[in-house]
């Protein structure tokens, strides 16, 4: 019997990697395979679904395939380096340390270690699965011989999409019909929130003096977040930049629903799930062509070659003043979203891992 | 140029998931978005031309953010900021927090803290002593650096009076056609330093070259901005400092490159050899030292931090930094004295003297050096 066991540094609820890992396990089991999740740490809510990674040798069997969900540094990587089973990396990208230098040295050190760990594992992996061609290239540069591009498994069903109407009313009352720019993502230097603030300032200067910027995401780099909000205040935008975090799925849906344009000026993205969330919500997208953003978005938004605020502001205004364009972008988004259905992605994961397992058994 | 939306590469192992299929409908959508992007670019140019976007405004926004950023703190401020971080972390508190959600937890923590206090205290006292010694040493170093900086500051030169500098209309200069010719084969973006009115940038763009300009003078840039040319209000050295490694395929230099101080000139050449791709092209225009001495305003000559070099010297410096010099053109007017007519008694002697004077003091007034990065 085929067995694909996953290893992940931390198994967390309401977390993209955590949800992906659990959905994959379910897909593998639905296929009749054995599949367990081994972790360094698990949230209390999910501890019954995970085993401590050092317990794996007790359960190891010939023919096992090990799938490592790579996203941060972890002793799990060192453990896997010493295992004889076929190893598959599922690479979700690691932010380059240069983004954190000066802001948060311990995070810079941590991501540098994560890079070193992946670089050590990559040549030994029988396959590197990446959620974008951009990530696949990074894996190849780190020495991975075989790669496959399979998106992250994320539930983005348009039919089950529910908006928290109370939250939506609250937001609508806050901005009184002014243009709302939205970005969703952790507040971290690689996301370039300062460029979003600059774009808002420019948009208010040139087009709509009442426009506001909504930022949703955890404050994972506090010094950077402080700098972004102080910068906004210095530009007279303290009341125009609003922050939300810890939102329920319905509340998050309300923030998307409430926004006029989703603006992403990240300088480094390995995939960018919020682009898909914006597509699901029917929010037109303006995004900087950086990392994997272009390939994830395809033709479902305006892809900018620069984050210069005047260009971003002009793009936002173009969408605001042209219903045909906005409609076409939303339609393209819905079409693009169909490339990322969980059924399709799960099927693809099963295909590539079945191939690895077959090769390992010598039947391919 | 606007960019078409990227799509997953067709040769990726998972091309089945690609959004792009070979249909006319997809091509039409991409073409439509390209048109939208072109209109957005045109809108930005219109805004610049109308004065809604003064030169340097976007740069000022970036610089303002840097004031809130530990990354952006420069020089003395950065040193002092970092030093304060060292000072802040040099003290170690051994009073471990003992709060707990459970009363027994707090009690146990207090017992452990008390029991280990004598041991931890001894170790921590030595660590703190070491940290303070390091901190003290860093203070001494920073003090010395600040004294050195003050000394260097005292030697800074004043800004040159703009009105006395030659007007910056590089697009109509004698060397412009040769510069355009040389940069035509540049395999990517080209920046024009001290681009002035943007005329050379426009000439390059007209030839299909992906060019933009930089100039530290907002006044000089005004005509370019009025015409919506892609120019930025910054000096070429500063600009090259911030562009990525091998981001440029060509650099055209004129204006202030002639009077850079030696250390700046070294920095410029170092930047050229890293910011340009291999096969990238440098086009450098300068006044000859003789012409500089004879025809430049005495105020500019006296206040300029450096002096123009001979074409041979630039060629030497570029070759030493991994460039191959392909062309050296002389031009810009010949101030040579004419020979006296043969037949007069001392014609040969006079003409020999004239040749010497021409070579040492007069001759052609400007030159253009074209070099290609070979390593």
The CATH superfamily of the largest domain in chain A appears as Glycogen Phosphorylase B
Total strand count of chain A, please?
A: 13
Based on Cα principal axes, name the global outline of chain B.
Answer: extended
Total count of strands of chain B: 7
Please, how many helices of chain B? Answer: 13
**Count of distinct structural domains of chain B:** 3
Identify the CATH architecture of the largest domain in chain A.
Answer: 3-Layer(aba) Sandwich
| Distance, first to last CA of chain B | 29 Å
Unreliable residue runs of chain A: none
Mean pLDDT of chain B: 83
CATH fold group of the largest domain in chain B: Rossmann fold
The computed structural class of chain B is: alpha/beta
Oligomeric state of shown chains: heterodimer
As a percent range, the share of strand residues of chain A is: 15-25%
Radius of gyration of chain A: 21 Å
